Amino acid sequence: MEDVKEMHEGKPSVNTDAAFKADAPDTPADCAPIANIPSDDAPSGTAAPDDTVLSDSPDSDLGNYMDTPAGDEPAAAEAERKIILRCESLSKSYGEVRALDGISFEIPEGKIIGLLGPNGSGKTTFIKIVAGLLTADSGRVTVDGHEIGVESKAIVAYLPERNSIPEHFTVNDAIDFYATFFNDFDKARAEKMLGDLRVDKRQKIKSLSKGTKEKVQLVMVMARRARLYILDEPISGVDPAARDYIIGTIINNYSPNSSVIISTHLISDIEKVMDGFIFLKYGRIACIGTPEGLEKSLGKTVDEYFREVFRC
Fold first, then answer.
1. Which tens digit of pLDDT belongs to each residue from 215-241?
2. CA 256 to CA 159: how far, in whole Å?
3. Is the full-model pTM beyond 0.90?
4. Are β-strands 259-263 and 276-281 bridged in parallel, bridged antiparallel, or unpaired?
5. 268-301 tens-digit pLDDT
6. Tens digits of per-residue pLDDT, 75-94?
7. Considering only CA atoms, which of 132, 165, 133, 125 is closest in space to residue 149?
8. Beta strand pairing status for 112-116 and 22-23?
9. Residue 301 burial class via C-beta count within 10 angstroms: exposed 0-12, middle 13-18, buried 19 and up
């Protein structure tokens, strides 16, 4: 429960408006040149303009990176979205191993982003830095304008890959714990979701199946009224039917002024709800874009392209 204990109390504030940008390093040889993938508004087969949804240029304006399909949202409204997460030249090493190598990007509110990459790509390191559980060696991260610390932790809801709820807790104990530690925890919301799952709140966590434990922990996280939800492998241990419920829970329980980052290897299950994706490789950004832009340019899904980029 240490991860959860460290994520407590503080007061959110509102960040100023900013356009989405991403600073990506040189494109790896096995990753298609992402600057050639057109935006949603560009004709198929043409190079993307400077405001492309995908780019490998450090100075490119990626204000339309998170753009919805044409006609769904006015460009002016999209440009006014507040930046929830800003990451600038972030680096982290473990001895001689460079886990993150100067990555930079921004994520606006109201979006679901897939943070994708193989084991060892830096995903978990990045997630823990944003959650305030690790300290970067260099660079800067802000959440809704707050440096990582008490105030950022108060508005970040973090779901770790492994269950962090003590086994001796009952489900009711878990509800009380989260309600005590997080001012934005909505107890009624949690109880409704648990009721939908038909979870007996008197049961101890240790008596639940692996899949039910994961669902209970997800409920605890999504019952918060957070600004940024970070979900590390939220559907890895559950059956396909339960995955649909979990994905639905994510979609239905985050607000338009918050965003969700999902790290997963089960890309085909979540790409239908992703507004954008980031590929990490050896601690650097390999590709960044939208499922729609990728489909228009290469005729491939995010899952298909992922398998090409990271083929062994």
1. 899 999 999 999 999 999 888 767 777
2. 20
3. no
4. unpaired
5. 989 989 999 999 999 999 999 999 999 998 899 9
6. 555 555 799 999 999 999 99
7. 132
8. unpaired
9. middle
**Cβ count within 10 A of residue 62:** 26
pLDDT score at 87: 96
Mean pLDDT, residues 168-196: 95
Q: Report phi then psi at 158, rounded to 5.
A: -115, 125
Catalogue all structural domains in the chain, each as residue range(s) with its CATH number: 16-161+224-235+244-309 (3.40.50.300)
Which of 89, 21, 104 is closest to 55 using CA atoms? 21
**Of the candidates 147, 136, 182, the residue with the CA atom closest to the CA atom of residue 15:** 147
Contact present, 49 and 39 (Cβ < 8 Å): yes
Residue type, 191: E
Whether residue 287 contacts residue 117, with contact meaning beta carbons closer than 8 Å, is answered with no
Of 173, 189, 198, nearest in space to 225 by CA: 189
CA distance 194 to 312: 41
Report d(CA 12, CA 143) in Å as an integer: 9
Distance CA 146, CA 134 (A): 16
State mean pLDDT over 44-51.
32
**Is residue 153 a contact partner of residue 7, using CB atoms and an 8 Å limit?**
yes
* Secondary structure (3-state) at 280: strand
- Please tell me the distance from the alpha carbon of residue 247 to that of residue 301, in angstroms, as a whole number: 18
Residue 49 confidence (pLDDT) = 29
